[in-house]
């Protein structure tokens, strides 16, 4: 009987947290959640399929911000941000091929970023995942304060 009570309590807490998260979604969260699960497509820039920079370009376009369709080009924009100062909407960059920046995602908070993975399509990953920790290069802040307020609006 006690195990069942603990399970039910845990389930109730989990559901209340999930409900709280849904109601507190930012504009960025809402845009990203519409895209999670879309397949990876090299060179893709539409809901038919995205590559990593096509995904970030598409998301930022929803907020009237133009990004080039290349992770290396995107890494030249804005200002450098340290990992411990990341905020929602910052771009995070990785070296997945051993020859410089080759992957980009958008930081969504709580140590997570959204990206188009060649294996999983559009998904959310943790910066602390061993794969990404080893390959992290830099982050860039491309949003002005005005754009940032638009992106995090609920």
UniProtKB/TrEMBL annotation:
Q: Which key words are in the record?
A: Hydrolase, Protease, Signal, Thiol protease
Give the source's domain of life in one word: Bacteria
UniProt keyword annotation of 4Fe-4S present: no
Instruction: List, alphabetically, the SUPFAM superfamilies matched.
Output: Cysteine proteinases (SSF54001)
Q: Which Pfam families match?
A: NLPC_P60 (PF00877)
> Is the keyword Cell division in the record?
no
The UniProt entry, under Gene3D superfamilies, shows: endopeptidase domain like (from Nostoc punctiforme)
GO MF terms listed in the record are: cysteine-type peptidase activity
Q: Which GO terms describe its biological process?
A: proteolysis
Indicate the segments forming the NlpC/P60 domain, all copies. 22-143
Q: Give the matching InterPro entries.
A: Murein_DD/LD_carboxypeptidase, NLP_P60_dom, Papain-like_cys_pep_sf
Signal peptide region? 1-24
What family is this?
Belongs to the peptidase C40 family.
What the entry lists under PANTHER family is as follows: ENDOPEPTIDASE NLPC-RELATED, MUREIN DD-ENDOPEPTIDASE MEPS/MUREIN LD-CARBOXYPEPTIDASE
- Please give the name of this protein: NlpC/P60 domain-containing protein
Species in which this protein is naturally found: Paenibacillus swuensis
């Amino acid at each position: 009987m006690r195990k069942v009570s603990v399970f039910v309590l845990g389930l109730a807490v989990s559901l209340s947290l999930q409900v709280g998260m849904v109601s507190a979604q930012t504009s960025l969260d809402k845009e990203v959640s519409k895209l999670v699960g879309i397949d990876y497509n090299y060179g893709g820039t539409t809901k038919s399929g995205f590559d990593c920079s096509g995904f970030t370009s598409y998301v930022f376009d929803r907020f009237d911000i133009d990004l080039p369709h290349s992770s290396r080009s995107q890494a030249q924009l804005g200002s450098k941000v340290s990992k411990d100062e990341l905020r929602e909407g910052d771009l995070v960059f990785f070296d997945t091929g051993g020859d410089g920046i080759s992957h980009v995602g958008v930081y969504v908070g709580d140590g997570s970023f959204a990206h188009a993975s060649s294996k999983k399509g559009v998904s959310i990953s943790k910066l602390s995942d061993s794969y990404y920790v080893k390959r992290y290069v830099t982050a860039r802040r491309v949003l002005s304060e005005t754009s940032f307020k638009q992106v995090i609006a609920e």
